[in-house]
Amino acid sequence: MRNTSMRNTASLACWLMTFLVGTESNGWAQDPHLAYAYPAGCQTDSILELTLGGQHLKDVTSAYISGQGVEIEVMDWYRPMTRGEYNAIRMRIQDAREELIEKGKTNPSVAEVELLARVTDEQKREMEIYLERERDIKRQPNEQLEEELTLRMIVAPDAEPGKRELRLVTETAMSNPIWFHIGTLPEVRESEPNDTDPCYVINQMPVIVNGQIMPGDVDRFSFDAEQGQGIVVEVAARDVIPYLADAVPGWFQASLTLLDEQGRDLSHADSFYYRQDPVAYFEIPRDGRYTIQIHDSLYRGREDFVYRIRVGEFPYVTSYFPLGARCGSQVNVELTGWNLESTTQDVKLPACDRHRSVEWFALAQDPTQTTRLPLQVDLMADVFDQEPNNTEQEAQEVAIRNNLHGRIDEPGDQDVYFIGRSGRLVAEVHARRLGSPLDSMLLLIDKEGKVIASNDDHEDKSLGLQTHHADSILETVVPSAGAYLHISDTQGNGGRDFAYLLSLRSPEPDYEIRVTPGSIIARAGSITPITVHALRRDNYDADIELALVDPPEGFALSGETVPGNADHVDLTLQIPDQAPEEPVLLKMVARGRRGSGDRVWLNHEAVPSENMMQAFIWHHLVPVENWTVIVNGVPRGKAPFEIASTSSVIELVRGKDVFVPIRLADNANPEQLKVTLDSPKEITAEMVVGRNRQIAIRLTTTENAEPGQRGNLLFRAFQETPVEPTEANLNPPPRRTDFGYLPAVPYRVAGRRR
């Protein structure tokens, strides 16, 4: 990489953006893809070099990290030699050898051949690296990981600890975010080879150990401990990179083992309950040296199998009770875990005006390290289960509009509640979402023993990092004679950790909003597509209106409605003609009527998110900190036409063509104008020209379209200009000018008209 150093203070207000303003590009390079950072974190008041792996990193000029107190300098770019580059140099060497032989050198030396072939020392080193990589039978080539970028990071003493979002920026694009952890503990890195005898002995605790697992790799670290010490070993793998798009399972599944001096297994963990990242506690039986061993459970590995291990005698909370409380109340939380100075703590909950918000609270344990837990803050009253309530004969009578707090105390246990009031009921379990291992099952049974409703798992799409949605929810009607509500663990497990918060309420239709992508870089004056996802609850089916909050001049939405029968909609964002001097943090709000004809509006702020893929197939909406837009360049030429429909919504008919009139600029040639349609797949678009320069877009809707289907049409406009033939090319292809997207246009599909 050219020796370009761009510093980044990590503050958007101070971020150097002058190189973005006013630049113009003849073409758009591919967006940089960031796969991993190693190490994936550091201590405050430190200076380090870290390696970022990914693709399309050569033109990166700066890096952005959220929060304050961090400076970043881009140092160097590296990509190993490709097969094509290796073969090209090898052919040059072969040609040079043959040329020397033809000139009478029967046995030319290697030096003579390389001199004639103009092979440099650097190329020879890269060829050796290429061959070494090719000989490694365990290596799994992946072009998305091959490029490396070296950064120099300076972290201030007062930098706030926690997860940060790290992105890379080129002159025309911004990468996906990746997490980078900043903490207060000392940090060390593994030193290969450390498969058998550990190369690194941990000489202070607590400490963070950073490493990478390659194919078949096993990493080991040793530490000295005294009898009676309670050592906690906590692995962060998914907490570093939550999803691997092209790996099955879709993350690095770490396997953790603790060994004694004789190499005997003393403790082993692949996970902790349902959590993918393992954690283990071990009380040292005698003075001696102990070894931590980590590998992938399937012995996979590559550069993005990055981990961080926290080792030491620090407090760790494994479970707590209750899982939440009423707004404005004070609750005494019971804590279970390791190395705890106190097993109870009084927590004052904030006042609130909404249901089911989750707040995080710091625990007064070790003042040098942060221990936090989530509590659900709710408007409804709290009721605690009264044992024994294991059978219908012992059932505890409860009313709706209450939060029930309980535990499945032992394997095979269940809690039974009697609901005596008839009417519509929503029973919703909050357990796994709040850290409990409970895999809940709900059954509602009438007095005759008939099952009215049941539910095991319910997917909560608002939790983008959760892969096993084990909380239950059922919506049903309680009969006039009342009914028994049973809660248990699906797997028959139980214990002190198996806590739950069971919400009983009437249906409360509501929604949440996510907007993707969470980071946008766009050319001035352009129109860029975005997607808004509606996460609907309790059968909420109203239209949701979208709007930007106090946007800078020039930013605007088109197609700003999520139809009531849709869980997402594609729309467009207009970018101003004049590029702002700094990145813009946009905000979007949504509002929808509480019910049909209701004058009450439900208002929510859209949460910016990234749409992450797991194991080739599953997608997860993972929230990011800010909805960031970077604008650069000068406006490209605008399309010489616009849609002239007099209706705000285009009415489409299945099996028929609909023509959308176009308003044409005076100097435009209608024969050269074209459009394509991004979505939906049941509709196709074609530009057609009639008499007297009349022009329209012909929309054809297939029979597969559902009557009542609604959404937005995203057109992309371009022009194809004929090119004069030459003797060398008698039939040249037309020159294509891309105008980008048009503003999104709402549509609705009707049935076939007779």
Structure report:
The chain is mainly beta. The chain has seven domains: 7-79 and 146-183, Sandwich (Immunoglobulin-like); 83-135, no CATH class; 187-314, Jelly Rolls; 317-378, no CATH class; 389-505, Jelly Rolls (Sandwich), CATH 2.60.120.380; 510-632, Sandwich (Immunoglobulin-like); 641-750, Immunoglobulin-like (Sandwich). It has a six-stranded mixed β-sheet with strand order 40-42-38-36-46-47, with no helix packed on it. A five-stranded antiparallel β-sheet has the order 1-6-7-4-2, with no helix packed on it. It starts with 6 loop residues before the first strand and ends with a strand.
Short structural description:
With 754 residues, the protein is mainly beta.
Structural class: mainly beta
The gyration radius over C-alpha positions equals 31 Å
* Overall pLDDT: 89
Strand content: over 45%
The CATH architecture of the largest domain is Sandwich
Strand order of the largest sheet: 40-42-38-36-46-47
Helix share bin: under 10%
CATH class of the largest domain: Mainly Beta
Query: Can you tell me the CATH topology of the largest domain?
Result: Jelly Rolls
Number of helices: 3
Total beta-strand segments: 58
Distance between the termini: 66 Å
Descriptive terms for the model:
single chain; Jelly Rolls; Immunoglobulin-like; 6-stranded mixed β-sheet; 7 domains; mainly beta
